[in-house]
Amino acid sequence: MTNAIVLMHVQPTAINVVAQKLVAIDGISEVHSVGGRYDLVAIIRAKDNEDLATIVTEKMLLIQGITGTETLISYRVISSYDLESTFSLGSERP
């Protein structure tokens, strides 16, 4: 699994619409509306680098209102819960 955080500048009147469109993209697990230098933060959990590239450079580019981005690639996820087991719920085959 490849994880990334995308920090976004968004037109102020489009923040809610952009957030809803982003969270509808397969692979974007969360979108946070934040204060500070950025307007939105998207958490991406992709199967590999190719999938991540498609999400960031193809699917996100189609959304009107995003005026700038900075993508941070995650080398390792340190968490108090097991992400793999969380995202694999219901995927076991008998």
Written account of the structure:
The chain has 94 residues and is α+β, with helices and mostly antiparallel strands. It has a single domain, classed as 2-Layer Sandwich (Alpha-Beta Plaits), CATH 3.30.70. The protein is 27% helix and 33% strand. The chain has three helices and four strands. It has helices spanning 15-23, 49-59, 83-87; strands spanning 2-10, 28-33, 40-46, 66-74. A four-stranded antiparallel β-sheet has the order 2-3-1-4. A hairpin with a 6-residue loop joins strand 2 (28-33) and strand 3. The radius of gyration is 14 Å and the shape is globular. The model has no long low-confidence stretch (mean pLDDT 90).
Task: Give the structure's gist in a few sentences.
This protein has 94 residues and is α+β, with helices and mostly antiparallel strands. The protein has helices at 15-23, 49-59, 83-87; strands at 2-10, 28-33, 40-46, 66-74.
Low-confidence stretches: none
Helix count?
A: 3
Radius of gyration, CA atoms, in whole angstroms: 14 Å
The string of secondary-structure elements, in order, is: EHEEHEH
Q: Roughly what is the average pLDDT, rounded to an integer?
A: 90
- Terminal residue distance: 23 Å
| Name given to the CATH architecture | 2-Layer Sandwich
Summary keywords:
94 residues; Alpha-Beta Plaits
Helices and strands in order:
Elements: E1 2-10, H1 15-23, E2 28-33, E3 40-46, H2 49-59, E4 66-74, H3 83-87
Antiparallel strand pairs: 1-3, 1-4, 2-3
